[in-house]
Write a structure and sequence with these properties.
The chain is an alpha+beta fold. The protein contains 19 helices and six strands. Strands 2-6-1-3-5-4 form a six-stranded mixed beta sheet. The radius of gyration is 24 Å and the shape is globular. The N and C termini lie far apart (68 Å).
Length: 468
C-alpha cells in the first residue's frame, strides 16, 4: 500500500504539472472571455447576467467569483480553478479504478486521466467542464458506496454531490437520474429522501434551463450533422480535438481501448458492468433527445462520462497479463501525452490566438474602431484594457482595423483571410498583416469620420482610445 500511495502521488504530481505548467500557453478564447466578463461584475450582477448569457447552471461562476478575487482575473487566475479540479480528478479516478478492479486498476486509471488530452484541455479552460468531471466522478463513487452499504450518511453524501453536479451542468442529469433509479430500486424507502432531494434540485433548475434554452445560443451545435458529432466522441475522448497525425494516433488508441474495454466487461465484477451501463445510458439518453429534436449532443457536454470510461479501460488493462497490461497502459498514456505535446507546439491546433492578434494591433494612433466577428473581438478585448464596446452610437474615428482569428484545429484554415468589410470611402488602406493564426487589415482617414457598428456591419465593434 505505501508503494501504491507513492506511485499515486507521483501520477497526481505529474498530471498537475502538465495542467498548471502549461496553463498560459494558449490564448483565452471567446467562451473564456465571456467568463472573464461575468466574474468582473459584482456578485449580484454576475448572477443576474447568467440567465441571459450562459447555457449552464451557476455553480462554476459562484466558485470562480471569489477564487479570482484571491488569485487574480488574468489567464492564470481564470483557469487555475479548472486546473485544480482536473488535478483532483486524477486522485478520484484512482479511487474509482481501485473500487472496480483493485490497486493496479486504480493506478492505471489515474495515469490515463493524468495524460488525457481532452481532460487536460478542459483543465486549462475557464469553463465548467473540469468541475463537472470531478463532481460527476465523486457522485459515481458515492453512488457505489450507497448502493453497497446504504447508510443514511452514504445516501445523503450521494445526494449532495449529485446536486452540486446538477448545478454545474445540465448534462449531469443523465448519470444522476440513472443512479437515483438504481438506488430506489435497490433500497426502496431508504433512498426516497435522497432521490427526492435530487429531484427537487432538478425541478428548481428547470425555470433557468427553460430561459437559457429559449434562444439560439447553443445553435452552433446543430451546424454539424449529428452523425459526425457521434463518431467524433470516441476519437476526441482518446486524443482530443485537433492534433497533427491525429488519424494514426486515433487508430492506435481505439485499438488499445477496444481490447481493454472487452477485457473489462468479460472479466470485471458486477460493479464494472453497472458503471458501464450507467455510462452507456448517460450517452444514449442525450442521443435520443437529439433524435427527438432537443439536440445538445456534443463531446464537451458528455465530458462527465470520460473518466468512468477510462476507469473501465483501466480495469481491462489490469485484468490482462501483467506485462501486456502494463505495456498497453503505457502505450495509451504515451499516445495521450504525444497528442497533448503536439497541440502545445502547433498553434493552429490550439484555441484561436486572440493574444497574438491583440499584441499585433499595437497602441492606437488616435481614435480607432476595431471590427470583425463578434466572438473574435471579445477575446481580443480581454487583452486590450484600452478598449470599449461602441454600442449603437456613431463615434468619430481616424482609423478602422479589421481582425480575423483563425479557428482552432485547422478545419477552416481557408477562412483565415476571410472577407474584409466594405469600409467608408474616406478611409484608405494603410497596412495588412497575415499570420497563420490571425489576419489584420487597417484603414485610415485624413480627418475623424463618424461611424457606427451598423455602418461597419460589425455589431461587436470595439473602440480603442475613443475620445482622445
Amino acid at each position: 500500500m505505501p508503494r501504491a500511495r507513492l506511485a499515486l502521488a507521483g501520477v497526481v504530481l505529474a498530471g498537475g504539472a502538465l495542467r498548471f505548467g502549461t496553463l498560459g500557453v494558449q490564448s483565452v478564447w471567446y467562451d473564456e472571455a465571456v467568463t472573464a466578463g461575468l466574474v468582473r461584475r459584482s456578485f449580484a450582477g454576475m448572477l443576474s447576467a447568467i440567465p441571459g448569457i450562459e447555457s449552464t447552471p451557476p455553480l462554476f461562476w459562484v466558485l470562480l467569483w471569489p477564487w479570482t478575487r484571491v488569485v487574480g482575473r488574468g489567464e492564470l487566475g481564470l483557469r487555475s480553478l479548472s486546473a485544480l479540479c482536473g488535478t483532483l480528478a486524477i486522485a478520484a479516478a484512482y479511487l474509482l479504478g481501485r473500487r472496480l478492479g483493485g490497486t493496479r486498476a486504480g493506478l492505471i486509471a489515474a495515469a490515463l486521466v493524468a495524460a488525457s488530452p481532452l481532460l487536460i484541455w478542459y483543465s486549462q479552460e475557464a469553463r465548467a467542464y473540469a468541475l463537472l468531471s470531478l463532481l460527476s466522478l465523486l457522485g459515481l463513487i458515492a453512488f457505489l458506496d450507497a448502493l453497497e452499504a446504504p447508510s443514511r450518511r452514504a445516501l445523503l453524501r450521494w445526494a449532495l454531490v449529485s446536486v452540486l453536479a446538477l448545478t454545474t451542468h445540465y448534462f449531469a442529469l443523465f448519470p444522476v437520474a440513472l443512479e437515483a433509479a438504481l438506488l430506489v430500486r435497490r433500497h426502496r424507502g431508504a433512498a426516497i429522501l435522497p432521490a427526492g432531494i435530487v429531484g427537487a434540485a432538478t425541478l428548481a433548475l428547470a425555470p433557468l434551463a427553460i430561459v437559457q434554452s429559449s434562444d439560439s445560443r447553443a445553435g452552433f451545435i446543430r451546424q454539424s450533422p449529428l452523425t459526425t458529432r457521434l463518431v467524433q466522441v470516441p476519437k476526441q475522448f482518446l486524443v482530443g480535438y485537433h492534433t497533427p497525425a491525429q488519424a494514426a494516433l486515433t487508430a492506435a488508441a481505439l485499438l488499445l481501448a477496444a481490447g481493454a474495454g472487452a477485457l473489462a466487461i468479460r472479466r470485471g465484477r458486477g460493479s464494472v458492468r453497472l458503471v458501464a451501463g450507467i455510462a452507456l445510458g448517460a450517452f444514449a439518453l442525450p442521443l435520443l433527445g437529439a433524435l427527438a429534436g432537443a439536440d445538445y449532443f456534443i463531446t464537451r457536454n458528455l465530458i462527465a462520462l470520460l473518466i468512468p470510461a477510462l476507469a473501465l479501460l483501466a480495469v481491462g488493462l489490469a485484468a490482462a497479463s501483467r506485462r501486456a497490461g502494463v505495456l498497453a497502459a503505457g502505450a495509451l498514456v504515451a499516445l495521450g501525452l504525444t497528442a497533448f505535446a503536439l497541440v502545445e507546439t502547433h498553434p493552429l491546433d490550439q484555441r484561436p490566438d486572440a493574444r497574438a492578434a491583440a499584441r499585433a494591433l499595437g497602441p492606437a494612433d488616435g481614435p480607432e474602431a476595431v471590427i470583425g466577428p463578434a466572438q473574435d473581438l471579445l477575446a481580443v478585448a480581454f487583452y486590450r484594457h484600452d478598449s470599449q464596446e461602441l454600442g449603437n452610437a456613431s463615434v468619430p474615428v481616424l482609423g478602422l482595423t479589421w481582425v480575423r482569428l483563425t479557428p482552432e484545429g485547422g478545419l477552416a484554415r481557408e477562412l483565415r483571410a476571410g472577407t474584409p468589410p466594405a469600409v467608408p470611402p474616406a478611409f484608405r488602406p494603410v497596412a495588412a498583416i497575415s499570420r497563420p493564426t490571425y489576419t489584420i487589415m487597417r484603414w485610415r482617414a485624413a480627418t475623424p469620420q463618424l461611424v457606427s457598428p451598423a455602418d461597419l456591419g460589425s455589431p461587436g465593434a470595439l473602440g480603442f482610445n475613443l475620445g482622445r
